[in-house]
Design goal:
This protein has helices at about 5-30, 35-60, 65-95, 100-120, 125-130. With about 140 residues, it is mainly alpha-helical. The two termini are about 25 Å apart.
Length: about 140
């Protein structure tokens, strides 16, 4: 994959991430008055993740969605969820941040991890394609 193609993916990922973050945050704000903040956060996260899967397969990585990818995609987001959840807890509990703003800040911190993990799942061979050419210059196996 050329550097230009990689930059295109990163740009499209950022656009999808902006839409997804807005969707997540909108759902969270709608649910927040009706349930505890962490329950609202978790439900909004799951709903936005489904939308993120389809936006990333069709637009970011331009690959075909499959049931296998759909079921693997949430597994990659476990790391994202853990990072965001820990961040949310720390921001609210230790930093005293408003529960309406803290999820947005925690989501921003998790962006680089989400890009790398989703690319690995949604684009077969992406990890190998990102390696430098000389990484494969060792002895060949027949």
């Amino acid at each position: 994959m050329s550097r230009r193609e990689q930059l295109g993916q990163i740009f499209r990922f950022a656009l999808v991430g902006g839409v997804n973050t807005g969707t997540f945050f909108g759902i969270y704000l709608l649910l927040h008055p009706w349930m505890p903040y962490f329950a609202a956060y978790s439900l909004a996260f799951v709903l936005a993740m489904v939308g993120s899967f389809f936006m990333n397969t069709y637009f970011t990585y331009r690959t075909r969605p499959t049931w296998k990818k759909f079921f693997l995609f949430p597994l990659t987001n476990v790391t994202n969820y853990v990072i965001q959840s820990a961040g949310l807890y720390a921001l609210v509990t230790w930093a005293g941040m408003d529960t309406r703003i803290a999820p947005l800040v925690a989501a921003i911190v998790a962006i680089p991890f989400t890009f790398l993990l989703s690319r690995k799942i949604l684009v077969p061979g992406a990890a190998r394609a990102a390696e430098p050419e000389h990484a494969h210059d060792g002895p060949s196996r027949v």
